[in-house]
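hey so i finally got around to running both of the ones u sent me last week. sorry it took forever, my laptop kept dying halfway thru and i had to restart like 3 times lol. anyway pasting them below in the order u listed, first the sequence line then the structure token line for each. didnt double check formatting much so if smth looks off just lmk and ill redo it

first one:
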Amino acid sequence: MKKATFTFSHFLSFSLIALLTTAISAGELKASTQEIMVYTSRNEHLVRDIFRQYQEETGVRIRYRTGDPGQLIQTIMAEGENTR
């Protein structure tokens, strides 16, 4: 039996999903918001269809950046509040 592993990339992906869900639940993402940016360490082919479906259902465009978890964290930290 193969043992399931939980890697840092899984943690980062789940954290980003939780952050997005929390923002929506808390009303932070208002109808006037037309676009959000998601940073994910998941491969593009794993998230593309999910993001496309979300856009179709909500009208909110999701821009996303994929990459190595460490690289994404450095990008977010460097961009600070100018993250886009």
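and the second one:
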Amino acid sequence: SPAVRIVAPVDGTRVKVGAKVQIRVAASDQDGYVRALSLSANGRFLGYIGITESMKAPYEMTWAPLRAGRYQITVAATDDGGATATSSIRGVAR
């Protein structure tokens, strides 16, 4: 199964509402390859990253919180065998 970790932002990060946040993800798979990442914030789908062999980690996506409050960013990695793993961080937008 894959291994996945949100590299940035770190857990507990405070950001301004509307400010662009660069989400960086490290993902690997010991017995194959990671084929896709799916990102969400507070359960709302942010985007999908299809991974090819020529792409190198960290994989990146930009997000901007739309309102003040707590947020949770989650990434799910899927490997070539269909196995999945997730990683999450929490922070505050103000």
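quick thing i noticed on the 2nd:
Residues 20 and 64 are 5 Å apart (CA to CA).
anyway thats it, ttyl
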